[in-house]
């Protein structure tokens, strides 16, 4: 059986290459070839604080929100044995295993040390993420560009099940007279 590294080939991950672009279940709990929209992007640098790669830094590659896990690029490498099947070749693959989100911490942009993330409001009312904890500078942690884009845009027109504005403001119940109360 051929042995392949976990490094992606071109623009595709190892799972997409091994299956010809199909999504396969490797870990037993879901699809490995997750869409790029679920990833926070390449600008989130983290340090692994527990596990075999403790103390190493890396960039978040994928987020598995349903499992509360992240995949850090080039870290927590394990060997996976994939049986050959229709349309893909089997072999032993080196892949990045997911880490629980509690085992990684975001790096402070000023000090470069791991820190916790807090939420603060600026004077003009804008909500920002700030570094907090031991070794933190208290500086603003910028949000990745991909998180600023909504996956489903907000509707600009009223839908078929939306109540029209003139009916929203209409008074349908009077507490003094009991008008509008249903007869039970």
From TrEMBL:
Every Large ribosomal subunit protein uL24 C-terminal domain range: 76-136
Q: Which GO terms describe its cellular component?
A: ribonucleoprotein complex; ribosome
So which domain of life are we looking at?
Answer: Eukaryota
Q: Which family does it belong to?
A: Belongs to the universal ribosomal protein uL24 family.
Biological source species: Hevea brasiliensis
- Name all KOW domain ranges: 46-73
InterPro entries associated with the record: KOW (IPR005824), Rib_uL2_dom2 (IPR014722), Ribosomal_uL24 (IPR003256), Ribosomal_uL24_C (IPR057264), Ribosomal_uL24_KOW (IPR041988), Translation_prot_SH3-like_sf (IPR008991)
Q: Name the HAMAP family for this protein.
A: Ribosomal_uL24_B
Example GO biological process term? translation
Q: Which UniProt keywords apply?
A: Ribonucleoprotein, Ribosomal protein
Task: Cite a single GO MF annotation.
Answer: structural constituent of ribosome
User: Pfam families, per this entry?
Assistant: KOW, ribosomal_L24
Q: Which PANTHER family match?
A: MITOCHONDRIAL RIBOSOMAL PROTEIN L24
Give the protein name, as stated in the record.
Answer: Uncharacterized protein
Q: Which NCBIfam families match?
A: rplX_bact (TIGR01079)
